[in-house]
Amino acid sequence: MNRDKMNLPTFYSYYRSSCSWRVRTTLNWKGIDYETIPISLIKDEQKTSEYAFLNPFQVVPTLEIDGTLLTQSIAILEYLEETRPEKPLLPKDPIKRALVRSLVQAIASDTQPITNLRVIKYAGKEEWPKYWMTYNFQFIEVQLSSTAKEYCMGDEVTFADVCLVPQVYNALRVEVDMTKFPIIHRIYIKCLELDAFKAAHPHRQIDCPSELKET
Questions:
Q1: Looking at the structure, do residues 114 and 150 belong to the same domain, yes or no?
Q2: What are phi and psi of 207, to 5 degrees?
Q3: Which of 6, 34, 109, 197 could form a disulfide with 105 if both were Cys (CB 3.0 to 4.6 A apart)?
Q4: Collapsing DSSP states into helix, strand and coil, what is residue 56?
Q5: Residue 71: phi, psi to the nearest 5?
Q6: E strand or H helix at 62, and its extent?
Q7: Does 182 sit behind a cis peptide bond, omega within 30 degrees of 0 on the bond before it?
Q8: Do 107 and 169 reside in the same domain of the chain?
Q9: Could you read off the pLDDT of 105-155 as tens digits, one per residue?
Q10: Residues 8/33, Cβ–Cβ less than 8 Å
Q11: Three-state secondary-structure class, residue 211
Q12: Cβ contact 133:171 at 8 Å
């Protein structure tokens, strides 16, 4: 899209946030240009009064688009799918759509929330994220054994892949043994060959630390 910068969607994001990563991938996949405003979770910038005015949940991401502010990554994904149906990320078949949403919830509701930064800080246990990702991946692997081909749902890229990739990245960071989950790991590698996923990678974001930065 060729839009004046003033009219671009504004995306409030943190480079390593898996929720932000989901939305970045979807924006890229659908060819939506946007401006990124970094919000550092390490510096607690999500708790400032200025940002809390935009997002009362004090989390990332927030997407300002079509004259409104949207929060919560899965709600944003659904909105983009409904308003920008080109290059869909949900299958047409209702059964496949339900299976995709099941995988999305297994990641976005059952796995990511209990392994994010604020929960780890509260729990005060370094092994916490590794345990829970390993625990939940075993069930995701089973479901994928009946749905996956190239990607999570056959040969179609869907929201399941969009959500899976950031979670695997986080799992690798905490040294989850991915040899136990060959389907999950194979899909992760396959997705990262796609331009939309490559461009959304944390190490290619403007707020990524220089020592991790990739081009």
A1: yes
A2: -100, 10
A3: 109
A4: coil
A5: -125, 170
A6: strand 62-65
A7: no
A8: yes
A9: 999 999 998 888 788 888 877 788 999 999 999 999 999 999 999 999 999
A10: yes
A11: coil
A12: yes
> Per residue in 7-66, pLDDT tens?
899 999 999 999 999 999 999 999 999 999 999 999 999 999 999 999 999 999 999 999
Looking at residue 37, the DSSP 8-state letter turns out to be E
Q: Which residue has the tokens 């496949």?
A: 96
Q: Is residue 13 part of a domain?
A: yes
- 32 falls within a domain: yes
DSSP per residue, 109-168: TTTSGGGSHHHHHHHT-TTHHHHHHHHHHHHHHHHHHHHBSSSSBBTB--HHHHHHHHHH
Co-location of 38 and 110 in the same domain: no
Nearest-angstrom CA–CA distance, 35 and 150? 31
Question: Is 58:46 a contact under the CB 8 Å cutoff?
Answer: yes
- Contact partners, residue 136, CB within 8 Å, separation at least 6: 106, 107, 110, 111
Which residue's structure tokens are 């990511």? 112
Do 196 and 28 form a contact (C-beta atoms < 8 A)?
Answer: yes
Domain of residue 117, residue span: 94-197
Strand partners, 154: 148
Do 172 and 127 share a structural domain?
yes
* Cβ–Cβ under 8 Å, residues 16 and 57: no
CATH number of the domain enclosing 34: 3.40.30.10
Residues 10 and 51 in one domain: yes
